[in-house]
């Protein structure tokens, strides 16, 4: 039988303050803080924040350009605590997750992680995320959006417990060529044995920290998960160990540039999740956003299976997500894609000039057959600011494979020691 453990707030009761001061405090307050917020606030120079699932998160902390180069040449520390996290455990945990996600969970061994996605009954993608198998009967599912009611409804009939642990578990991404050396110097003995998508527990303070060799940058990197009360000590341990290795805290703008170079997609940025889509033509099946490789038809029934197979058989897949290389050096963010400069065939969802690839790159959703069987004579419409006036530029686009860059150090075993 499915069970849920309700989250309880541990926040202290707020003191009574006059209404006028309360209003002023309200406008000064910028959303929730993560367990690492005191350290992040102390480093913030740009005061450039955004809302990540209700939390105050930095677009940048000191310089978005240099923060990007910290990822590619040093070690970059990024707070991933606002990422939604679920603990799923019990006798039927494997069977339950195999039922709701696309990939075959029976092939995911304890101490391993895989990237997966899950769909509604019509085969449209609800979200994508990472599934950590902590033990034979205990998992952690991380995602962009919140899905607790859906998970609980789907768990009926399974002997499994589903609990959201977003607030209880703090997370950090440590990415870049010196990330392994930082962890080793921080005293995490044996971390060199982690291969790509491995995870293990390590001693930290009076408890443990889970470290996985995963990340969102296409670079050598790790993600660390620790109880919220031990977050600051973990941060301090990493920063002290990484001082001579050039460790720097970064914001999302730099991370977003790196993930785009790696060809990775973001829910509700590169595709609209089915729970958020208002218009039917915004819904996407896994094959339409490059996630068809996840579908394992040899396993038993899973959410959306019948609809996905029918769409494949009857050629109802309407869209394709592609990588584009665009002439020039002006990013084509949210540009319209045309065929032969006249027919509108899609939209760019993310774009950047890549310092690593030395190319103007983008991810775009195109209407089939464009981007699928028809890839010639594609153009993007860019509006560039020139001397206080926008100028329309039509630039040629070419469909290219993702990732746009491929770094050998990401999968090197043992990890590179820079």
Automatic annotation (TrEMBL):
Residue ranges occupied by any GCVT N-terminal domain in the UniProt entry: 65-299
SUPFAM superfamilies: Aminomethyltransferase beta-barrel domain (SSF101790), Folate-binding domain (SSF103025)
Binding site for substrate: 223
Residues in Aminomethyltransferase C-terminal domain copies: 321-406
Alphabetical list of Pfam families matching this protein: GCV_T (PF01571), GCV_T_C (PF08669)
Stated name of the protein: Glycine cleavage system protein T
Organism listed in the record: Mesorhizobium sanjuanii
